[in-house]
Structures are given as C-alpha cells and as structure tokens.
Amino acid sequence: MEDIFKDIRPIVENNIQKAIAANTLNAKVMPGDHVVTSEERQKYVFAYDIGKKRLKSKINRYFANLAVNKKTKEIGKNIKIVGLENALKVKDTSFIITSNHYSPFDSLVVRHLTNTLGKKNKLSIVINESNLFMGGTLGKIVKSIDVLPYANDLEYLGKVFNPALPSLVKKNRVILIYPEQEMWLDYPFVRPLMPGAYHYATKLNIPILPIFVTWEKDNTDNIYTIHVGEALYPDQTLSLFDNKKIMSEQDITFKKSINS
C-alpha cells in the first residue's frame, strides 16, 4: 500500500517523541487534523445519519462496504489471528473490540477478524467527529460505512451517540473502539487506555474483546498478527466506576503481554 504519509512522517515521529518525553501518551500527533467548531458540530455532526436510515445513506453504505470488504480480502492473506478461539466464544453476541490505533487503515485488519467470525458488514467503528470532515475517497468511504462519530459534547452524546448504541446491541453488531484515543502512526507499543470502551460495555452489559495488532515488514507489505485475548465481562453487581477500572486493567495487562 502506498505510503500516503511519507511527506509528514518526520513531523509525526518528532511529535511522538515529544509526547513520550512529556508522558502524554494519548496526545494528538498527526498534523493538520480538522478542529470542529461548535457551529460545525451542530450543522454536520448532529445531522449525520448515524443509523443509516436515509435511502442515500443506505446506498452509499452498500457501495462503501463493497470497497472495504474487497480491500480487507486483499490484505487478509497477510493477516494471522492468534487466539481466534477467544473471539469464537462471543461471535453470536454483540461485543466491543478494543484495539491499538496505529494507522488510518487499521480497521481493515479488525474487519478481517469480524468477517472471519461471520459478522460481515456488522462492524460499527467509533471515530472522532473530525473524521467527518476528511476529504477525498477515504473521507467519502469513512462517512459512508457504519461509523459512530464521537464528540465531547454532552448534548450530542445524550441526543445522538448514546441512543444509537442499544439498537446496535439488538442487531448483534460489533463496536470497534480505540481506547488509546489518538492514532499514533506505526507506533508498535501499548499506550494508556481511556475509559470510554469500558463505560459503554458496562452500560450496555456486553463483553469487551481485547485485541492487539503487531506487524512486520515483508518487502513492501506489512504482515499483521491479530492477538485476541479472552473476553472481559462487566459485573453488574459492581459499580460503573469499579467495572471500568477492573476491565481497563485486565485489558492493558493483556495488551502489555503482547507488546509493551
């Protein structure tokens, strides 16, 4: 795959080193990301067809899914899955996948896993609201597939984001959340995990399937390995705070066992 970031890689790598030195391991390191204004959020993010209810949205999703599944199949020959038995135990339910975030295309690797589980076109991806403002072919595909734009806005969360989740659970969909929050391009190590995924797993009473993806170069291609941990279940006899703490600690322990 062509390196679309070759011109900015030195900047990104320098930003990553600065963030490591400052111990801000969830910081934004990619330059030029769109900063969404409150006006833009009201006009575009609130109005985004998060449930794909409109005819145009359904048509766009159909063709976007064809494109991403074709690409997923192409890279699938370079993907190994370790711990597939852990994923098979939850394949008939709805669950949240937590993955490291190292590439704008890393959801294709996750999609290979969900397609392997028989959940083709059942993946919903939580993205930052700024991704709705991406241009070009990639931007169009991102807006057309099943994504859940996330914004740190209580009104948006209460009226749009949170109400959209129960219907996904009823449909046995998989929700992909990147708990490291920001993408660190090609960063191979574990970073701190933000609490959102574990919050929603507890609220929705569904399991977390933790994964960590590693890779190595083979000429110009990456050979990926998806490491799948045992599913983590919220304990409804415990508080929301305790569940978030326990599951995030279990998740990061698994991820660090792969690569820290």
| CATH architecture classification name | 3-Layer(aba) Sandwich
Termini, distance in Å? 26 Å
Sheet with most strands: strand arrangement: 1-7-6-2-5-3-4
The largest pleated sheet is described as: 7 strands, mixed
Task: Give the DSSP E fraction (strand runs of 2 or more residues).
Answer: 15-25%
Mean pLDDT: 96
- Number of helical runs? 9
Looking at the structure, the CATH topology is Glycerol-3-phosphate (1)-acyltransferase
Identify the CATH class: Alpha Beta
Total strands: the figure is 7
- Count up the domains: 1
Radius of gyration: 18 Å
SSE topology string = HHHEHEHEHEHEHEEH
Describe, in short, the structure shown.
The protein has 260 residues and is an alpha/beta fold. The chain is 43% helix and 16% strand. Helix 6 (136-144) links the parallel strand 3 and strand 4.
Verbal overview:
This protein has one domain: 3-Layer(aba) Sandwich (Glycerol-3-phosphate (1)-acyltransferase), CATH 3.40.1130. The chain contains 9 helices and 7 strands; from the N terminus they run αααβαβαβαβαβαββα. A 7-stranded mixed β-sheet has the order 1-7-6-2-5-3-4, with helices on both faces. α3 crosses α6. The two termini are 26 Å apart. 28% of the residues are buried. The mean pLDDT is 96.
SSE map:
Elements: H1 9-21, H2 38-45, H3 55-76, E1 79-82, H4 84-88, E2 95-98, H5 106-116, E3 123-128, H6 136-144, E4 147-150, H7 154-170, E5 174-177, H8 196-204, E6 208-218, E7 221-228, H9 240-258
Helix pairs in contact: 3-5, 3-6, 8-9
